[in-house]
Design goal:
Helix content is 36%, strand content 34%. It has 10 helices and 14 strands. The protein has an 8-stranded mixed sheet with strand order 8-9-10-7-11-12-13-14. Strands 3-2-1-4-5-6 form a 6-stranded parallel sheet, sandwiched between helices. Strand 8 and strand 9 (209-223) form a beta hairpin.
Length: 307
C-alpha cells in the first residue's frame, strides 16, 4: 500500500459511484483516500461500507486535499473541464474518465495549464481497453488490408427533465462519439481527420427552456487510408456494432460477439453474454489496473473531428 498512488475520486453521477469505488479499490496501483458525489448520504454510507477514509462535501474540497497526488474525475462534460482545471492548477495529476471537454479552446487551455503546472492530464476511454477490441487489434492481420469501418451506435434519451436539460444535442454528440473515435484510432494506429459531420436534431420546450436534442449523427472520418462511417441514433436501448472490411476477411462486432468471416470460414474470436455495459466495465477495469496507464487519443484530435 505504501507504493500505491494516493487518489481522490470525483463522481458527479451517484448511480455509478459504487462502481468506480470498487474498480479503484481493487486496482493494485491506487489507494482511494477520499471521494465526492452529489449525494452526501450515499457517499458516507459507501465510504463506511468500502473502507474509504474520507468523504468531501464539495468537489473542490476533495480536489484541494493534501493527501492525494491524483484526482480521478468521472463527471458530466459541463463539470469535468472545471474540475480538471482546478486539479491541474493545484499541481495534481488528473485521470479523466470519458468525454471531459466540449471545445477545442478548452482543450488547448487545459493542455497549456497542464504543461505550465507540470501535471499530467490523461483521458481514459474504456472501449480501447476492453477485451473485444484488444482481441480485434491483436487479430487485425486476419482481415488483410483494411479499407472501411462502419460503426452503428444507439443511446437512450433521458426521461427525467433535469437530465434532458443537462444532455442537449452538443453534449450528447460528444458523450456518444469520443470513445468510438478513440477506439477507431486504436484499431488503425492513425490520428483521425474529419470528412463530414451531419446532425439531425429535435427542438423541444422543457421547463420553459428551448432544448435541442440529438436524434441522429453521422460522422465520416479518415484514418490514414481507412474511411470510417459512424452512425449514432437515439433508441429505447443502448447498443454498439462495428464492421471492419478488409481485402481478405471481415470483422463483425456487437455486444455479444466478435467474429471474423471470409468466403471459407467463420471464426468466433470473443463472446459475451452480459451486454454492452459489461464491455465498458471490463475495459475501464483493465485500464485502471494495468501496470502502465495507457493514454487514449488526445482530446484535441477528437474535438477537431466534431468541430
Amino acid at each position: 500500500m505504501e507504493n500505491t498512488e494516493k487518489v481522490g475520486l470525483v463522481c458527479s453521477n451517484e448511480d455509478f459511484i459504487e462502481f468506480f469505488i470498487d474498480i479503484i479499490s481493487n486496482s493494485p496501483k491506487f489507494t482511494l483516500k477520499a471521494l465526492w458525489c452529489p449525494d452526501t448520504e450515499r457517499s458516507i454510507q459507501l465510504a463506511a461500507d468500502k473502507d474509504v477514509p474520507s468523504v468531501s462535501h464539495t468537489a473542490f474540497q476533495l480536489i484541494s486535499r493534501t493527501d492525494t497526488e491524483t484526482i480521478i474525475i468521472a463527471a458530466h462534460p459541463y463539470q469535468a473541464d472545471i474540475f480538471c482545471a482546478q486539479a491541474i492548477a493545484l499541481h495534481k495529476n488528473v485521470i479523466c474518465i470519458n468525454a471531459s471537454l466540449l471545445t477545442i479552446h478548452h482543450a488547448r487551455l487545459l493542455s497549456e495549464l497542464s504543461a505550465k503546472c507540470n501535471s499530467s492530464f490523461v483521458t481514459i476511454y474504456a472501449l480501447r481497453h476492453s477485451p473485444p477490441f484488444i482481441a480485434l487489434k491483436k487479430n487485425l492481420g486476419l482481415v488483410g488490408r483494411v479499407s472501411f469501418i462502419d460503426v452503428t451506435s444507439s443511446f437512450i434519451v433521458a426521461s427525467v427533465n433535469s437530465e434532458r436539460l443537462r444532455n442537449d444535442s452538443v453534449v450528447t454528440l460528444h458523450k456518444q462519439s469520443h470513445a468510438i473515435i478513440d477506439v477507431l484510432s486504436f484499431i488503425s494506429d492513425c490520428v483521425p481527420c474529419k470528412i463530414s459531420t451531419t446532425l439531425r436534431e429535435k427542438s423541444t420546450i422543457i421547463d420553459h427552456f428551448r432544448l435541442k436534442q440529438l436524434e441522429t449523427a453521422v460522422i465520416q472520418l479518415s484514418f490514414g487510408n481507412i474511411i470510417a462511417n459512424i452512425r449514432i441514433t437515439c433508441s429505447d436501448h443502448r447498443s454498439l456494432s462495428l464492421i471492419v472490411y478488409g481485402d481478405e476477411s471481415t470483422f463483425y462486432f456487437n455486444e455479444n460477439c466478435l467474429v471474423c468471416k471470409n468466403n471459407e470460414s467463420t471464426t468466433v474470436i470473443w463472446q459475451n453474454a452480459n451486454g454492452i455495459q459489461k464491455v465498458y466495465e471490463d475495459g475501464l477495469r483493465y485500464a485502471l489496473s494495468a501496470p502502465m496507464l495507457s493514454s487514449s487519443l488526445d482530446e484535441l484530435s477528437i474535438l477537431k473531428c466534431l468541430s
